[in-house]
């Protein structure tokens, strides 16, 4: 029934319309004591089959953005103040909760950061994957569900004979594979991967990442890859947004970010803080300072306090977005070029 | 799984023996000999010594203890009451059954009241469904059972006149005493359930379930509740202890002839055989309930089950 409703809502593919478009999204966490401004007017666009990388340090608002798309912000504190989240042209924020449930896991699914806690410890792996399949395919018979579970487990490289095992019987990497199987079992159009490899050790990271890439290419799923690791972005993403204090300060294609000549000082800082194998520096070059307090954001540019190019105007006035082809920058350094355009 | 249950049941034997030893030893080091109790004051010294000798009172402690346990296990013989000179088991058993009925009804009521309210208030945190039961629980946890008993007596006997005020016989007789002793543990069950549910609701796997598109009701009943149940099960099991204690008060107040009031009554006369036998029977019941709790644990949580089964 819900699937019919979904079709009538035209959430399916429409040519010419981006798969996901976020327009001016603002999300906060509000308690009696304070208001955390987690996401402040971000806009981004993900095309069908493409991967968008959202990069930024801890607390930049990446996960909040992801949870906003699924409308899963904690109900007691999280609020979406304004903005639109268009999925195939339909605003998800206006959908009825029942339809939204069909979207979750059916059209958009999510892989969480910590596989250790993302699986319910008291249910077997096949129960948990099967639950998602049954929810979105109510007409499946028991055997069909079972077959699909086997198929998914094989796809992520787990022996189907282990499907009756509980999460605690798997290693971290295996658990993340299960989570990925669960996310992909209903062939979603968009996969949100929220730091899928952060909690894994490096060798497993590479494996899981390669698997995600392979599955994405095979199934043609679009992806929102949330990470703080520029290496992952370079390997997987078509488009990139650099997020800082709830804003996207620089966005563009992967080429723009990695090979472009103009950069936001924060992006430069991010690149500088990667250990470089060719120069023989003994220390890393971190960006000095901390992210501004999200309960009390500065009036001007959010990065001004830590920026080595900080000017007077940066402290008082919020920069406008300078667009150069596909490349967008939000910094006063490009004000001259902004005027020329 | 069966192996695990069998193992746990076998483990009961040393537990109960240990409990018996402690109770028996404690009663043994207290002063006073049986002859003085049974024969009463004014008996000639020689008669007393002879009587004690006949009972084996002067034997070494371990010998007495082994004899006691042997009699207890082989022929349910707990000795003769010093006060009534009746067989202890025959005197205690019917009253034991009454107390158990009362306590288990209390445990059941406490769970029935506390757990659903706890779930409801955790799901509707900060609403009236949360604040009103929380406030009530706060008061009730601090309420002594006898005050509640008096209030119940006032309401149901004096005012509404629908329940008998004392004695046993019908189910109606049990309602008030069971209610009186079950309210404080119900308040505790409520608080445990609520905090455990709230903790479980915040877990990542709940968010995963929501992200799969699981309807909210199923999220709560399937994903949250099963995880939240573990501490609650322990709490319900443990509440039996406080219920048996509370039963003493309720037994006095509602004139229920239970084992609690019997023991309290006989402590004044230092009726050793009754006190020892009563305490042992109560602790056996308690250990059995804890066994049940452990088995339920293993059913709920596969991680605990895995510790005892050999499967991977």
Question: How would you describe the overall organization of this protein?
Answer:
- The complex is a heterodimer of chains A (341) and B (312).
- In chain A, the strands form two sheets. Chain A has an eight-stranded mixed β-sheet, sandwiched between helices. A four-stranded antiparallel β-sheet of chain A has the order 2-1-4-5, with helices on one face.
- Chain A is built from 13 helices and twelve strands.
- Helices cover 34% and strands 22% of the residues of chain A.
- Chain A folds into two domains: 2-107 and 188-340, P-loop containing nucleotide triphosphate hydrolases (Rossmann fold), CATH 3.40.50.300; 117-187, no CATH class.
- The longest helix of chain A has 18 residues, at 202-219.
- Chain A has helices spanning 2-8, 62-70, 97-103, 115-118, 125-136, 142-155, 172-184, 202-219, 230-236, 254-259, 265-272, 312-316, 335-340, and strands at 20-30, 35-46, 51-55, 78-87, 90-91, 108-111, 190-194, 222-227, 239-244, 247-253, 321-324, 327-330.
- Chain A starts with a helix and ends with a helix.
- Chain B folds into two domains: 12-75, no CATH class; 93-308, Orthogonal Bundle (MetI-like fold), CATH 1.10.3720.
- Chain B is built from 13 helices and no strands.
- Chain B has helices at residues 2-29, 34-39, 45-55, 61-75, 88-123, 128-141, 145-159, 171-201, 204-212, 216-253, 259-267, 272-300, 302-308.
- The mean pLDDT of chain B is 86.
- Classes of the chains: A alpha/beta (341), B mainly alpha (312).
- The A-B interface holds A 70, 72, 76, 101-106, 109-110, 112, 114, 117-124, 131-132, 135-136, 165-166, 168-169, 179, 182 and B 125-126, 203-205, 207-215, 223, 226-227, 300-303, 306, 312.
């Amino acid at each position: 029934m819900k699937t019919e409703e979904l079709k009538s809502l035209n959430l399916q593919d429409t040519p010419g319309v981006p798969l996901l478009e976020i327009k001016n999204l603002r999300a906060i966490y509000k308690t009696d004591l304070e208001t955390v401004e987690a996401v402040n007017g971000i806009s981004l666009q993900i095309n069908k089959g493409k991967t968008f990388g959202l990069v930024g340090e801890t607390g930049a608002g990446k996960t909040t953005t992801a949870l906003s798309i699924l409308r899963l912000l904690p109900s007691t504190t999280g609020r979406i103040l304004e903005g639109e989240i268009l999925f195939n042209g339909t605003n998800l924020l206006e959908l009825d909760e029942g339809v939204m449930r069909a979207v979750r896991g059916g059209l958009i699914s999510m892989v969480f950061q910590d596989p250790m806690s993302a699986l319910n410890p008291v249910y077997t792996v096949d129960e948990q994957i099967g639950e998602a399949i049954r929810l979105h395919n109510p007409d499946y018979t028991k055997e069909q569900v079972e077959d699909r579970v086997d198929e998914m487990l094989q796809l992520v490289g787990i022996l189907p004979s282990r499907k009756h095992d509980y999460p605690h019987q798997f290693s971290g990497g295996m658990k993340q594979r299960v989570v990925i199987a669960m996310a992909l079992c209903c062939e979603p159009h968009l996969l949100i991967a929220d730091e899928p490899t952060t909690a894994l050790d490096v060798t497993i990271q590479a494996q899981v990442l390669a698997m995600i890439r392979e599955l994405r290419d095979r199934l043609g799923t679009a992806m929102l890859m949330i990470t703080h690791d520029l290496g992952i972005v370079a390997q997987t993403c078509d488009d990139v947004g650099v997020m800082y204090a709830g804003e996207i300060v620089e966005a563009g294609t992967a080429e723009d970010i990695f090979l472009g000549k103009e950069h936001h000082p924060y992006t430069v800082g991010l690149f500088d803080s990667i250990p470089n194998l060719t120069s023989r520096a003994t220390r890393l070059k971190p960006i000095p300072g901390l992210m501004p307090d999200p309960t009390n954001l500065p009036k001007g540019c959010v990065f001004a306090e830590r920026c080595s190019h900080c000017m007077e105007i940066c402290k008082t006035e919020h920069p406008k977005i300078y667009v150069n082809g596909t490349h967008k920058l939000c910094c006063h350094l490009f004000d001259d070029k902004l005027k020329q355009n | 799984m069966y192996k695990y249950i069998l193992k746990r049941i076998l483990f009961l034997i040393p537990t109960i023996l240990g409990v018996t030893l402690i109770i028996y030893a404690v009663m043994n080091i207290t002063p006073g000999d049986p002859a003085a109790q049974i024969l009463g004051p004014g008996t000639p010294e020689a008669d007393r010594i002879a009587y004690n000798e006949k009972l084996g009172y002067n034997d070494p402690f371990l010998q007495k203890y082994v004899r006691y346990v042997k009699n207890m296990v082989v022929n349910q013989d707990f000795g003769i009451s010093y006060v009534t000179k009746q067989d202890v088991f025959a005197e205690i058993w019917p009253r034991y059954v009454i107390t158990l009925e009362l306590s288990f009804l209390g445990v059941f009521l406490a769970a029935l009241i506390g757990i659903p309210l706890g779930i409801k208030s955790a799901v509707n945190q900060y609403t009236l469904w949360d604040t009103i039961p929380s406030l009530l629980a706060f008061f009730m946890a601090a309420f002594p059972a006898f005050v509640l008993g008096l209030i119940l007596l006032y309401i149901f006997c004096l005012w509404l006149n629908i329940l008998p005020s004392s004695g046993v016989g019908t189910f109606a007789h049990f309602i008030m005493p069971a209610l009186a002793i079950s309210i404080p543990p119900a308040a505790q069950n409520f608080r445990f359930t609520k905090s455990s549910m709230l903790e479980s609701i915040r877990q990542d796997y709940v968010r995963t379930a929501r992200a799969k598109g699981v309807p909210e009701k199923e999220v709560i009943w399937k994903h949250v509740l099963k995880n939240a149940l573990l501490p609650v099960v322990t709490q319900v099991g443990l509440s039996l202890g406080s219920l048996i204690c509370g039963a003493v008060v309720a037994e006095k107040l509602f004139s229920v002839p239970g084992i609690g009031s019997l023991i309290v009554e006989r402590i004044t006369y230092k009726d050793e055989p009754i006190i020892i036998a009563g305490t042992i029977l109560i602790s056996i019941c308690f250990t059995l309930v804890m066994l049940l709790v452990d088995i339920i644990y293993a059913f709920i949580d596969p991680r605990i089950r895995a510790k005892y089964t050999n499967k991977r």
